[in-house]
Design brief:
Elements: E1 16-17, E2 21-29, E3 33-40, E4 45-52, H1 60-75, E5 84-89, E6 95-100, E7 104-106, H2 107-114, H3 119-138, E8 141-142, E9 151-154, E10 162-164, E11 171-172, H4 197-200, H5 207-223, H6 233-242, H7 248-251, H8 259-268, H9 280-294, E12 302-306, H10 314-317, E13 331-335, H11 339-368, H12 426-429, H13 431-450, H14 454-467, H15 472-484, H16 488-501, H17 506-518, H18 522-535, H19 540-553
Antiparallel strand pairs: 1-2, 2-3, 3-4, 4-6, 5-6, 7-9, 8-11, 9-10, 12-13
Helix pairs in contact: 3-5, 3-9, 13-14, 13-15, 14-15, 15-16, 15-17, 16-17, 17-18, 18-19
């Protein structure tokens, strides 16, 4: 059976590209480029060469994306990221890049014929994906399109098992080189089935977006399905924004999955960035903890030997000598294999340790404090308390007057123990001074917000709220911080609180309307902008917002 004819712009087998690479055949292709099997003639090494389609050679966005893949991949050297070794341009203007040759298949191909993978295998693959992303994120690069088609599984028992492909739509965290963003039709930023909520609404893209997409991939590997799937891509993006993802067990109830894996997926698919696992490194540690916990056999009860612990024991730290200490070279612990029973044993151990510590602390207190009938009784008159004046040198005070109880500084105040109530803040005793302090925090927060220092701004607004729970300007400030970070769900929450506290402040409703708009809740956005116009009839931004939302809402 003869092979199908090559497309008109395909490179012929046997042709030599750039004087160094002999084309041996076509490996595959996509919407932007075709990939060839080739050989580097100078060193007789097999390579893969990706060549831009001829029809796109005059597209600035396509060329920019292609060149970005070359430069981004070239700076990322890691076992779990495909290695790019060369790049250039053909005489007809088509860009090409040269990559290491890989033997295997994409994760999409594997899932196509296997349906799903054992959860331990899925976790192992995810670990390698995260290892590659950790390096990319450390270099300020966000992939933005993590999906099975861009994850290549090497054949056999090779190490590594996974290579991340296609950094063509990656961007630097600080911004895209050249300043333009790819938004043309056919060159979408990300894939709706795997998009993070912030990607779906064109929010701020951070490494957290890649971690969200990686968790979607984990979900698909374990269950064989995506957490959200609609034929309409917009409906899928809305689901990522607003719907609660199902658990793994809901999709595949027949699987025996650890509860810790469910918790990892739940955190990984959280709507807001702040609720997700914070980094690839932290994600990897979480996976390590899961695998360590599940390495325990599933039957019976066994004694496991823990490695020796450096430093003093808890008993030594609180001054208690155990009645029968284990040998110094090892510690014996009781381990239950099943996760539910294991948690009961651990809880029991923690309770027992807490009781021992509490008893030890009470023993220390009874040995260091004078005996008393009441909670604040004075020392015996014939033995002045340590570091205190004799009782007769102080005026008599009622034994239960905490402010006048015996103290060591002659002031009549009892020395505060660690963990006891702090001394009152002068600002709390002076309402006017407290209000001024809240105003200062708000002003500092607004200055930081205007300068783009969002962490500092959030800290100042939180201080203001801690001092005055009704500080609606602080809630509004937190809403603006969240909005600028692309966390539109949190922006909505904070803006609604601000509006509830001050319903006639148009600026708060503007922020709430913007958040609704970004969350694709156009009717809610229009309603808020209309309320703004009731308060400020000449507000042009509200009028423009209503116009845009109605256009988006139109079928």
């Amino acid at each position: 059976m003869s092979e199908p004819p090559l497309p008109d712009d395909a490179l012929e087998p046997g042709s030599v590209l750039d004087g160094r690479y002999r084309i041996d055949g076509v490996l595959g292709g996509g919407a932007m480029a075709r990939v060839y099997r080739a050989e580097h003639l100078g060193i007789a090494r097999p390579v893969a060469i990706k060549v831009l389609h001829a029809a796109l050679r005059y597209s600035r966005d396509a060329v920019t994306r292609f060149q970005r893949e070359a430069t981004t991949s070239g700076r990322l050297v890691h076992p779990n990221i495909v290695t790019v070794t060369d790049a250039g341009m053909l005489p007809d203007g088509r860009c090409f890049l040269v990559m290491e040759a890989l033997d295997g298949e994409t994760l999409a191909d594997r899932l196509e014929h296997e349906g799903r993978l054992p959860w331990r295998k899925a976790v192992a693959l995810l670990g390698e994906i995260l290892a590659g992303l950790r390096l990319a994120h450390d270099h300020g690069v966000v992939h933005r399109d993590i999906k099975p088609e861009n994850l290549f599984l090497l054949r056999g028992d090779a190490s590594p098992l996974v290579k991340i492909l296609d950094f063509g739509i990656a961007r630097l965290v600080e911004g895209v080189a050249g300043g333009s963003r790819i938004t043309q039709s056919g060159l979408t930023i990300g894939t709706p089935l795997y998009m993070s909520p912030e990607q779906a609404v064109d929010g701020e893209i951070t490494p957290a977006s890649d971690l969200y997409s990686s968790t979607v991939v984990l979900f698909e590997m374990v269950t064989g399905q995506m957490p959200f799937y609609y034929e309409d891509p917009v409906a899928t993006m809305k689901a990522h924004l607003n719907e609660t993802p199902p658990s793994l067990q809901e999709i595949a109830p027949e699987l025996d999955l650890p509860e810790q894996l469910e918790e990892i997926v739940r955190r990984g698919l959280a709507k807001t960035v702040i609720e997700r696992i914070p980094s690839a490194d932290s994600y990897l540690r979480t996976l390590d903890e899961l695998m360590a916990a599940e390495a325990i056999p599933h039957r019976g009860l066994r004694l496991a030997t823990a490695p020796p612990v450096e430093g003093p024991s808890a008993a030594a730290l609180i001054g208690v000598i155990p009645a029968a200490a284990p040998p110094p070279h090892e510690a014996t612990v009781l381990v239950r294999p099943r996760s539910g029973t294991r948690r009961l044993v651990i809880a029991g151990v923690l309770i027992a340790v807490g009781i021992a510590i509490f008893a030890a602390v009470q023993a220390l207190r009874s040995s260091s404090e004078p005996e008393a009938e009441g909670p604040l009784a004075a020392p015996a008159p014939d033995a002045p308390a340590r570091d205190q004046e004799p009782p007769q040198a102080r005026p008599e005070t009622p034994p239960h007057d905490a402010e006048a109880a015996p103290g060591g500084d002659g002031s009549g105040a009892r020395p505060a123990r660690e963990g006891s109530a702090r001394a009152p803040d002068p600002a709390e005793a002076d309402p006017a001074r407290a209000r001024e302090q809240v105003k200062r925090w708000l002003a500092e927060g607004n200055r930081a917000l205007a300068a783009g220092r969002f962490d500092e701004a959030a800290a100042q607004f939180q201080r203001a709220l801690a001092a005055d729970g009704n500080a609606h300007a602080a809630q509004a400030g937190l809403a603006e911080v969240a909005y600028n970070r692309g966390d539109f769900a949190r922006a909505e929450q904070s803006a609604k609180r601000a509006v509830a506290l001050a319903p006639r402040v148009a600026a708060y409703r503007m922020t709430l309307a913007k958040a609704y708009y970004k969350l694709l809740r156009y009717d809610d956005a229009i309603a808020q902008w209309q309320k703004v116009l009731e308060l400020e009839p000449s507000n042009e931004r509200a009028k423009k917002g209503i116009e845009l939302a109605r256009e988006k809402r139109a079928p």
